[in-house]
Structure formats: structure tokens, C-alpha cells
């Protein structure tokens, strides 16, 4: 298997930017504004940081550390990582709690408000809209992450990392967007996501989560178009870099079920363990992604394992035990001391199912799809033995795009970050190595899709006024005093309106200079070697109106 | 000082029930219902518990442990005790966090929804309404905790404890209700509470918290009655058991100010340290109450110390440092190992000031005065070195009245619990000594004043229907899946309506058998030796219509 992968890896290298990039990284306006104030201190600090990183690499035989990045779907801040908060919800997450205890908690991690953009931000270090990415829909779209974007996997690969991806991907259904074409040596992933795989199925309808959308729910006597519902969509595929993808575990004509969804999740859990074993045995450092589909799931189990018992909550507790197994396996490989393990959620809960899913807004208001703190604040824990103090925490602002730049620096791969486009991701290595107060950002722009909806600066957050509405009417919240963003006071807006306006201008001027790139487009399902007849048909129907 | 106190103590003993009580403690119906199911197992367990308590007393020279009980005003669940949640609010509570780390967290402590009833429940082990107590108002009322109620201080005193109270009392302005007439050897306390002392003052109006209620805020050109505002109210007093109270730090004609309020708080902090020193030097075990007035306060400090800076939040952080000083002093006395330290809040935040106070609802919805979880769920931490494991937690339901019975048992004072009235407080010693799952209650009746508004059983909570509204319309919430009580589902009510109805019936039948006692009444301000002329006048005016 090793040989095949190496060949495939060579193919990818041949198509990726092969040379170190020259010049400075291009930054957004707000960063430059801070840099003008703190640039000298940062430069001094960077020398220390470089020294420390060199020591770390030296101690590891000249190699940067492995990175295992676990991204969980749709879980609100506070739902995992704290034994005491586990009592509030009746969901036990002992393994994630232990991970938090063993490392650093990023107490103010901002994501994008939904799955696709958060993942794009992590992969590219850029606001997703710069790559044309707003939100990838569940069904056929013929769209996805453009080949022109340079992912963290591509960056780390050029610095000598082996890479693999297991689980949810959600970056589109076109060939250029597939993970094995975006820097991963090997990948197992579903072409679409959980709506197709766990919501549009009979069991979710039976659990009262789809109001009869499944065809078993009504006679459909006066309906015409059966393909208004999911039809012939590709499910899970596997592939090596540069190769064709192959759909697994699905026969022509077969109906997707909850049992198949659960098997898929179990398969990904098996595969992440296999990939870990395989990568740990190599000489090169590894970058391994585990992006589970759970806790999303819309049917009740035969017997709940959590005290909560909600259909998301129960699967979160199951997933926690799987993460325990994964970390135990990492210990067995002997690589735990040289491996950064990071775990976080991609955005807030799917609050629309609150009450029955068992997850809830807990502390921050709002959830998935929303610019409110409940949509974009998630738990985030990093374990890095010998470097990050156990049970430590920092209150600094971090955005998910910062991980791109930070992991690139830790992976000795800064030279491979592109210099021809804006990189929003701020290097947070100083925060990791020198502690609280060392973040190089005190701001976040919060988008919902293509629309900027909020601007965060320090503890203040402005909800931007709708077009044509006077700025003085824009509510500004103090999120320390008012975490649920419910008590705007006009004085705050009157004072800070101008400051927020300046921030937006700095951002917009840089967009004018470096315009957004277009979303990748193409024929859906190219590069899949065993398309089922119904998938072929779905694709034909999809393109029939063009 | 010691001699005087002993004499005073004798006086109190002469008026309190002098003999051990005979027979079984009278329990509410729901407890009996559980006892019918688990009585045998409980009896067996009680033998073990008695053995263990005897060991603990033996190890302490035959004496039960000291009890230091700190009750903080109006703080929501999650606002203190967790370093990581401190990041959410920007309020640092390192000393309370350490206390939580050093002991047991009661993760499901229920209080009453406001100050007076919670304190009555703690002092008497009874639902406050059984003593006629609903809520004691801020101004003159001529009402209070009846002499006939037997307080925990009286119970522990008879078992040989020395007792003292420092800080908020809020059990009424009549002589029989004063703490030194309710079992405390010594007491320093304000006659009323923070509304008079920190809200109805010029500084709170200037801080925009009273909409000009203070007379400095408008000309009052067409007003008649100046005494509609606070007038001549007694402020802080001090007294020994059986003696007269004496108002301190207030001259005739003097206006109460924020500076005086802050001095009062600082004085109580000094006095709690003095009382601790005094009591620790005695041979007898002590029961010492510290009921701070902070964090309540309605003016901004000259310079905030917390990142949050809200007027409640900042004082909570200050109070935390004072508690650190108190615990350090306890260490210095050498009594820390023999002292149970308990800290909790009396009810949820004053949510009406949310946004500017800096406190917020955080996890549970609602606050002070409300039967919602946000009104009656508070943080509660117990440290008992050598007995309670550090950093432990239990998810069992506990009600504040349980502390009466539990401290009585730990204090070897069960014989002095009255046997002629219902005692709601459940003995939670098994929970403390044998851990999670050993609570003897899985229910709570939640009153707002005289009206039962909710019934809690396990993770379910029914909001009772208004009179005349059909039971099927009563919303039932699953508070693990829905901590904010926002997503009632009719199925829950249809199923559990009957079960909740049975619970209410069991409670009501016991009330019919043991009717509520009347609230204590009398002439306000009796027993104060230095009433100011304006206080005399206020009392005359108060009674002039009678």
C-alpha cells in the first residue's frame, strides 16, 4: 500500500505549486492596522518563537510534529470538554473532557456559521467567500472548492507531511474539490452530507423529524416529480491522491437506510484507526483529519446510552467513546508525544431540533447558519505534550482560519503559503507558545454565506444594519456582560459605529484590491469509477435543463 | 467577650425547646412515597452512615465539625466556581473556583426563587410558606420569621455549637425574627436589605438604575408624600443573643450613601474574620454564617477590577477575593481540617438588570423571583477535608432545605429537630458520604411566594396550569434536553400529568394535616436600643393608619 500511495503523492506534487513562495503573506486590512501598532514587538517575539520551534523539531529528530485534527459537526459551546457542564445536559464526554484536561482550551474560538464555510476556512486559511464558497447544498450542485485554492494539506505535504482524510468533507461534488485532489494522499468521505444520509430517510421520518418527506409517509397521489426528493446520490467513496474515487457499500437500486448510515460511521471510525496505524509507521510526520458525521443523526437508537437520550446527544456520547479509542490507539503507536491533537466543533448546534435532539443553546444564543455567538462559538481543545501546559486555557480571540497559518508554521511549511491572495488566518503560534494575551487578532468578521452580518472587536459585537438602514440603528452588544446578544444599548452603537465602520472599510478595500475568486464548477461526479445507474441518471437529469 | 456571650447563650437556651424531641421526623408525602419503596435500603445505609460519622467525630476529639456557611446573593448557575466559564463572562472567581476544586460540587441544587424564602428554607428545613414566609419587603413591614420556627442555629446550639451570623439576614424587622433571637450568639446584620442600602440612593439614580426615584432626580413639585420613598429606615445593627440590638455607623439625620454601603460591606468582611478568630479559639464547634450583601450594588466603582466591569459582576470579583481572605484566615486558625465550608447563591440573578449588571442568565432561563431553573438553580460547593474527595461532583437533586437536616445530622443534633411539624429537608449525609446516586429525593416543589408554580421530578418539570386551566395544557419540560424550558411537548404533559397530579396531592394532603403556621408579626424595630428620631417617626407613620 505504501508504494501506491507514494506514486499517487508524486502525481499530486506534480500539479501543485512546487516552489517556495516569495515575499510577504498578504494580510487583511485590520491585521495591517494592528501590525502598524505592534509590528516591532511581534518581530522580536517571532525570533523567540522560531528558536523554540527549532528546539521542538530538533528534539523530534528534526521533524515537525504530527497533527491529528478532529472536527465535530454542529455542537454548541459548552456541550463537551467539561465534566461539570456534562451534568447540565446529561451527556457524558469523559474522553473529550480528558483531552481538554491534558491540553489547552481555546475559550474564544470563532468558526463560520455552517459546515462548508468553516471547513473551507480551515483548509485555506481564508474567509470562504474569497474562494467563492458560501454553502454547499445537500444534493447535486456541480460546485465545490476550486483547484486554485491551496489547502493546508497541500501546504504541509510540500513540507514533507503524509496526509489523510476520513469522514465528512462537504466541499462539493466536482472532481477538483475532492480531498484526494486537494492535498490528501488518501481519503474516505461521503460525496454529500448527513441530510442525504440521515435525514431524508425513512427512519428520520418515523422519528418525526421530517414531517413525512420520505415517500413512505404519504401516497404522493398528486405529486409529479419523484426526484424532488433525494434520488441516485452517490454516498461514500474512497480514493488515493491522483486516482479515481470508488463508491463503497452501495449496490445499484439499493435504498439508503439508518442501518447503512450507522455502518458508514462505524467504518470511518475503523478507518481512522487504520490510517493512524499506517501513518504512524512512516518516517514522515503526518497530518490526519477525522471529521465524523456523528453526532448528526435523526433517528433514536434501540437503547440510548446517555442520560439525555436525545438523537444528537446520544450520538455525541457514542462519538466521545470513539475518540477515546482513537486517542488510546495513538498512545499505542508511540507517537502521542510527537502529535498535536486538536478537537473542535465546526459551528453551533442545529438549534431547529432543540428540545428533541438533546443538544441546546446552553450559553450562547443561536446556532448553525447564524452569525450569533451560538452559531460561531465552539469548544476547541489542543493537546501538545511537553509544549502546552495541561488544563490550561486562553481567552484570546482565535478564528478557525488561523489554524491554517498556525499549523503551517508549526509544520515548518510557511514557505508554501501562497503569496498571491489574502490569507486571513493569523499565526497563533505565539499564543500557543507564550500564552494568554498573545493572540494577534482582537477582531473577527462574521459572515453568513456571502453577507457580512457581524463584526467583533474585543468584547464588542455589532450586528450590521441591513442595507439602507442608518448605522446608528445597528445594535452593539457587550458579549461578556450579555453573551446572548439580547441587550443592545444605543450608546454603544453611537460611540463605536465609526470604529466598526472603519473596520469594515479596511476589509472592503482589501477585497477591492484582491477580489474574491469564483467558486469551482464542473460536471458532478466526475472521477468516480463505479457510478451506479441511478447516479448517472441523476446527473443527466441535473444537467437536462442546461 | 466570651463570658458575656455565654450568658447570652444561656438566655436563649432558656427560651428554646430544651429537650430532645421524641418520635419520627414528620415528612412530606412524596418523601414517604419514596420511603415506602426504599426504606429498608435506607435503614441499612443509615447504620453505615452513623458508623462513619462516629469515626469522623472521634477523629476530631469527639466533636462534630465546624460549619462555615457562605450564602451569596442573586448569582446565576455557572457564574462562579469554574475557571473556564469565567472566560465567558470576564469575571474571575479564582478563590471560589479553588473551593470548588477542593471539594464537592452539588450540580443540581435548588433554592427558592428569592432571598427571604431561600434563607427561611435553609434556617428551618421547611418550605417557607409553612412558616407563613413568602417574601419580606424592603421597607417597614412589622413581619418576620416567627419565634415558633426552630432554626438550624437553635438546633446546633443545643448540640453544643457556638453560633454567629454576619451579613444579610432579611427575615423581618420584628424582634422575634432577629438572628440573635433565632439561635445566633452574636450577629451583625442590616435590618432590611440592599434595595434600601444600595438601590434607593443617589448614586444608583446617577448610574441610571433607578430612573430618578431619588429626590435629587426631579423637583417633586406636585408630589405630596415624601415617605413614599425610603424614610428613616434602620440600617445595620449588631447584637448578642438575648440582648438589645444597636444601630451602628449612622447618625440622626444622616443620609445613606454608596460610600456608607461600601463601608458596611467592608465592615462585615472584617467582622467575619473577627468572628472566625473568636470562634476558632473556643473549645466548642462553631456554626458561622457569612451572608454577604455583595455582589448586589447599583453604582459603578471608580475603577473596575474585572474584565466585565458590570456593577454586579465587578463586586462578585471583589467578593471572591474577600472569600479568599476568609479561607486563608481559616487556614491560619488551624481549624480548616475540621471545618465544613459551604458556599452557594440564594437564587438566580436579578435578570431585570441584565446587560448592564454584568451578570446574565448564562445557562438556565429566568432569574430572581421566578420558578424557572434560572431562578432556583445555583452553584453550590462544599469542602470537607478528608471526607469529600477534591474536585468531585454529584448530579443528584438537592433542595436548600436539605442542608438544615444534613448539617443537623453531621452536627450530631438530629434529636433537636422538631417532631411536631413537617420537615421538608431531606438528610443528604448519604449523598455526601456515599456519593452520587444517594440523594433521597428526586423531586422538588417550586413555589413563588405562596403559590406552587412548578413540580420537578427527575429530569422532568411541569409548570403548573393556572387555576381553571385544564391539566393537559400544562407544559412539561425535559431539563436535560431543554435546560431553558422553551420546548414543551404536549405528549409529556399527557403522559406525566397524572403523575405530577399525584405528587401535588401527596403534598397538599400533608398540608391539610399540618397546616401552615402564620407569619410572625409585631411592632417593627422593637429591641433596638438607639433608634434614630427619624426611625421612630417612620414607625409611628407606619402604624398611624391602624
Automatic annotation (TrEMBL), chains A, B:
Record GO terms (molecular function): arylsulfatase activity; metal ion binding
Keywords attached to this entry: Calcium, Hydrolase, Metal-binding, Signal
Sulfatase N-terminal domain segment(s): 65-409
Entry superkingdom: Bacteria
Names of required cofactors: Ca(2+)
SUPFAM superfamilies: Alkaline phosphatase-like
Signal sequence, start to end: 1-20
Record-stated family: Belongs to the sulfatase family.
PANTHER family to which the protein is assigned, alphabetical: ARYLSULFATASE FAMILY MEMBER, ARYLSULFATASE G
Protein name: Arylsulfatase
Organism: Aliiruegeria haliotis
Amino acid at each position: 500500500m505504501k508504494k501506491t500511495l507514494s506514486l499517487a503523492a508524486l502525481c499530486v506534487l506534480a500539479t501543485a505549486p512546487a516552489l517556495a513562495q516569495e515575499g510577504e503573506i498578504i494580510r487583511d486590512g485590520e491585521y495591517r492596522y494592528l501590525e502598524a501598532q505592534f509590528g516591532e514587538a511581534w518581530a522580536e517575539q517571532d525570533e523567540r518563537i522560531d528558536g523554540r520551534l527549532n528546539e521542538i523539531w530538533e528534539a523530534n529528530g528534526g521533524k515537525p510534529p504530527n497533527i491529528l485534527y478532529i472536527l465535530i459537526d454542529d455542537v454548541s459551546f459548552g456541550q463537551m470538554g467539561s465534566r461539570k457542564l456534562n451534568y447540565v445536559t446529561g451527556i457524558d464526554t469523559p474522553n473529550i473532557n480528558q483531552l481538554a484536561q491534558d491540553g489547552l482550551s481555546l475559550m474564544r474560538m470563532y468558526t463560520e456559521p455552517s459546515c462548508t464555510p468553516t471547513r473551507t476556512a480551515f483548509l485555506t486559511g481564508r474567509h470562504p467567500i474569497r474562494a467563492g464558497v458560501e454553502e454547499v447544498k445537500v444534493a447535486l450542485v456541480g460546485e465545490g472548492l476550486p483547484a486554485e485554492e491551496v489547502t493546508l494539506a497541500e501546504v504541509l505535504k510540500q513540507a514533507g507531511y503524509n496526509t489523510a482524510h476520513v469522514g465528512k468533507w462537504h466541499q462539493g461534488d466536482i472532481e477538483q474539490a475532492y480531498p484526494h485532489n486537494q492535498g490528501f494522499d488518501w481519503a474516505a468521505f461521503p460525496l454529500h452530507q448527513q441530510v442525504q444520509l440521515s435525514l431524508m430517510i425513512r427512519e428520520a421520518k418515523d422519528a418525526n423529524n421530517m414531517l413525512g418527506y420520505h415517500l413512505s409517509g404519504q401516497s404522493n397521489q398528486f405529486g409529479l416529480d419523484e426526484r424532488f426528493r433525494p434520488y441516485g446520490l452517490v454516498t461514500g467513496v474512497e480514493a488515493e491522491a491522483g486516482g479515481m474515487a470508488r463508491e463503497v457499500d452501495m449496490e445499484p437500486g439499493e435504498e439508503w437506510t439508518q442501518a447503512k448510515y450507522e455502518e458508514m460511521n462505524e467504518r470511518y471510525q475503523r478507518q481512522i484507526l487504520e490510517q493512524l496505524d499506517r501513518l504512524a509507521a512512516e518516517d514522515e510526520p503526518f497530518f490526519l483529519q477525522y471529521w465524523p458525521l456523528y453526532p448528526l443523526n435523526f433517528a433514536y437508537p434501540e437503547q440510548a446510552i446517555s442520560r439525555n437520550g436525545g438523537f444528537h446527544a446520544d450520538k455525541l456520547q457514542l462519538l466521545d467513546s470513539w475518540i477515546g479509542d482513537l486517542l488510546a490507539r495513538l498512545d499505542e503507536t508511540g507517537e502521542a508525544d510527537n502529535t498535536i491533537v486538536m478537537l473542535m466543533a465546526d459551528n453551533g448546534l442545529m438549534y431547529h431540533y432543540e428540545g428533541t435532539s438533546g443538544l441546546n443553546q446552553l450559553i450562547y444564543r443561536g446556532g448553525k447558519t447564524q452569525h450569533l455567538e451560538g452559531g460561531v462559538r465552539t469548544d476547541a481543545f489542543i493537546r501538545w505534550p511537553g509544549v502546552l501546559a495541561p488544563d490550561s486555557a486562553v481567552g484570546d480571540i482565535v478564528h478557525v482560519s488561523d489554524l491554517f497559518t498556525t499549523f503551517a508554521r508549526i509544520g515548518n511549511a510557511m514557505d508554501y503559503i501562497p503569496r498571491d491572495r489574502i490569507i486571513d488566518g493569523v499565526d497563533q503560534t505565539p499564543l500557543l507558545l507564550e500564552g494568554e494575551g498573545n493572540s494577534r487578532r482582537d477582531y473577527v468578521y462574521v459572515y453568513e454565506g456571502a453577507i457580512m452580518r457581524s463584526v467583533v472587536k474585543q468584547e464588542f459585537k455589532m450586528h450590521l444594519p441591513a442595507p439602507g438602514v442608518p448605522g446608528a440603528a445597528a445594535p452593539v452588544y457587550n458579549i461578556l456582560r450579555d453573551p446572548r446578544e439580547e441587550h443592545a444599548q444605543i450608546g454603544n452603537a453611537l460611540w463605536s459605529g465609526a470604529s466598526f465602520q472603519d473596520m469594515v472599510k479596511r476589509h472592503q478595500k482589501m477585497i477591492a484590491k484582491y477580489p474574491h475568486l469564483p467558486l469551482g464548477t464542473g460536471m458532478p461526479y466526475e472521477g468516480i469509477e463505479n457510478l451506479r445507474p441511478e447516479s448517472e441518471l441523476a446527473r443527466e437529469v441535473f444537467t437536462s435543463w442546461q
